[in-house]
């Protein structure tokens, strides 16, 4: 396995700093849109909070969005 040299590491750090903030911002925006869409679908089907909780409890382990926190 090849190891990265100082120049490679410097370039890697530079690119990480250049792109990581924007990538995290876009991931956050996508999550917000997915949650909003999920809420709109739940409202369109007139689901109660207990029905939504049941859907999350019985959802497959690989859901595209994270389960909302219930307060």
Gyration radius from CA atoms, angstroms:
20 Å
How many angstroms separate the termini? 49 Å
Q: Which residue ranges are poorly predicted, with pLDDT under 50 across at least 5 consecutive positions?
A: none
Strand content: under 5%
- What is the number of E strands? 0
* Biggest sheet character: none
Q: Which word captures the global form?
A: elongated
Average residue pLDDT: 88
Helix content bin: 55-70%
Report the order of strands and helices. HH
Structural class: mainly alpha
How large is the count of helical segments?
2
Summarize the structure.
The chain is mainly α and 71 residues long.
What does this entry look like structurally?
With 71 residues, the chain is an all-alpha fold. It is built from 2 helices and no strands. The chain has helices spanning 6-44, 49-57. The N and C termini lie far apart (49 Å). The model has no long low-confidence stretch (mean pLDDT 88).
